[in-house]
Amino acid sequence: MNGLIMMCIAIVVLGAGYLVYGRWLAKTWGIDPNAKTPAYEFEDGVDYEPADTNVVFGHQFASIAGAGPINGPIQAAVFGWVPVLLWVLIGGVFFGAVQDFSSMYASVKNKGRTIGYIIEEYIGKWGKKLFLLFCWLFCILVVAAFADVVAGTFNGFAADGSQIVANGNVATTSMLFIVEAVALGFLLRYGKLHKWVNTAIAILLLVAGVAVGLHAPVFISQGTWHLVIFAYIFVASVVPVWALLQPRDYLNSYLLVFMIVAAVVGVLLTNPSINLPVFTSFYVEGTGYMFPILFVTIACGAVSGFHSLVSSGTASKQIKNEKNMLPVSFGAMLMESMLAVIALIAVGSFATGEAAAQGYTTPAQIFAGGVAGFLAKLGLSYNLIFTLINLAVSAFALTSLDSVARIGRLSFQELFLDASIEDDHMEPWRKVVTNKYFATVLTLVLSYLLAKAGYQSIWPLFGSANQLLSALALIACAVYLKRTKRKGWMLWVPMVVMLAVTLTALTMTIVQKTTGIVAGTSANVAGDGLQLFFAVALFALGIIVAVQGVKKLLAQEPAKAEN
Fold it and tell me: Which of the 8 DSSP states describes residue 17?
């Protein structure tokens, strides 16, 4: 197998999935291009803010992608390239894209409300409370894992104390992006310029940031970057979306286009060999059994519960027209699957042991090294391409952090809100816990403690919780479709499969962490203990919410009026 054939297979499958299956879903469920969307109906300049399709697509893709579609396939490649490719393509079309579209569809049809509110409306109030608690714990895991990935990408020093210039370049440019995003946000909101002028300005800012970063690297330790990143996340999760979230996504969308086009061109023109084995074994020492490990390791790129939170939590509040839902949700998911395939090609292009010999220790570095290697054969600068690809990956991860921290904060606040209690009559304790600053600080403090354990330690638990969240979102959307007299049978198989995968994986994690702590073989008792608590809590909450949802799904009851 070579990279060109693998990429062509992916393009055909994913393209057909969108044109045939995606459009069929939109036609089956119904799209009203004349309906007033929540972005206009509840426009508040904070969360509800109409955005052009390219802007909200950029937000959706950058938020859902993060480091996931690169980390997952590269780690799962120990099972061979065939299992990875099959799961990415089948999962992307029939699991992930369906979940993302149904989540956004249900949200837009219900005033832009989150999956939590969908559960309250169609399953029950306690189901919503438990789901929100599940989401909050999950968001803590996501912030911890992605923050550590970004800090590692920015880390300016190697183990021997020498400076890592490429990481310093990426760090400088990423920090400049934040400043440029704020300036661009005010320009987009108050400048009233033509969209092509805005585009030209965005590209100039992007180029300027990269140019400065390449000539002025910043060298800071990983531990210090942890503190800087969490300070940034705090600010990003409480300011209005137009001030940072939307313009960052706008800038990142061009970086995204560059990264994917560069990778595709590199594969097309160099046709790299895939040096990975076709299949290794159903059990790999140090990793575990292919079921369920493969399916929780590759979350983003195939199916990811986090996507449902973005689709219903932030993106749905920016949709201008219902017809934009399909390209923004279904389309962004398939684009992410394509990125996962490219990551598989990148890692497959290395000979055995070659990546480690070049000092590439993280999936992001392996991906950047692979793409840079493709383009270097065409005469381009290896160091320049390596830096730009690393920058793109860190930009995605930072954007995911923007979104997930905000979603975590909103989930915690909603957990204690009660529609029957007016703001002026809230008890003092309720006013404290629903305060956005308190909710943000609590979420980020717990995330910081987990991040110190390292993303490698967190990733299996993150993957399990992520896929269980996917199952819960599919259950909620299936109940919504049933209650509104829409066909929902296409959600049943993904729902059952993801429940089986995730409950098995969480059980294995609980047994592993418990055994290590009891036997005294745990290298980090505090970290493993915290992960054990999260695993048990997520397992219990997931089971309860799933049971409540399935009961509603199977119950014979009058259909709710269609929305």
Answer: I
